[in-house]
Amino acid sequence: MKPETWAPHVTVAALVERDGRFLVVEEHTPAGLRLNQPAGHLEAGETLAEAVVRETLEETAHPFTPDALVGVYMTHFARADSSGTTYLRFTFCGSAGAPENRALDPDIVRAVWMSADELRACPERHRTPLVMRCIDDYLAGRRFPLDFVHTHSVGPPR
């Protein structure tokens, strides 16, 4: 029997600030209704930038244009059986256009704009501690150019 290969789940998240408020989503999770940045999994064939644009549109209906990478974050959620899941999250900041008239992902209840103070006041509602950590890093001025993450595409085998 072939042993299972371990791999982290690669995710992306978008930070959009407008007039001192951040675009977040209220979503159904196994732990109940939680707040998160628009975020989701990298899909096969996508670049990280393409993934964050897609996820933001699917979860908020706002077209997203990434300007910079805020940070790369790793989180491990342990389970009682000593297994767990590791997430590697790439958080981008940028701007969002006007919302399009489209349905949101099924788990998303709504997109909402909240200030950092409003978010800081309700940590029990955050999907993970990364919600506030990413905002704090953004507010501290952390920015890396988009080309900090290089995507190397390999063509078909010769």
Main beta sheet, described?
7 strands, mixed
Strand % is 35-45%
Number of domains: 1
CATH fold call: Nucleoside Triphosphate Pyrophosphohydrolase
The name of the CATH superfamily reads Nucleoside Triphosphate Pyrophosphohydrolase
Q: Enumerate the spans where pLDDT stays under 50 for 5 or more consecutive residues.
A: none
Q: What is the H/E order? A: EEEEHEEEHH
Tally of strands: 7
Annotation field: number of helices: 3
What is the second-level CATH architecture? Alpha-Beta Complex
Task: Kindly summarize this structure in a few lines.
This protein is an alpha+beta fold and 158 residues long. It contains three helices and seven strands.
Structure description:
With 158 residues, this protein is of the alpha+beta class. The chain has one domain (9-141): Nucleoside Triphosphate Pyrophosphohydrolase (Alpha-Beta Complex), CATH 3.90.79.10. Helix content is 18%, strand content 40%. The protein is built from three helices and seven strands. It has helices at 48-60, 116-120, 130-139; strands at 9-18, 21-29, 32-36, 39-41, 64-78, 84-96, 108-115. Strands 1, 2, 3, 4, 5, 6 and 7 form a seven-stranded mixed β-sheet that branches. Strand 2 and strand 3 (32-36) form a beta hairpin. The chain is globular and about 50 Å long. The model has no long low-confidence stretch (mean pLDDT 92). This is Phosphatase NudJ. Belongs to the Nudix hydrolase family. NudJ subfamily. Its EC number is 3.6.1.-. Keywords: Hydrolase, Magnesium. One of its GO terms (molecular function) is thiamine diphosphate phosphatase activity.
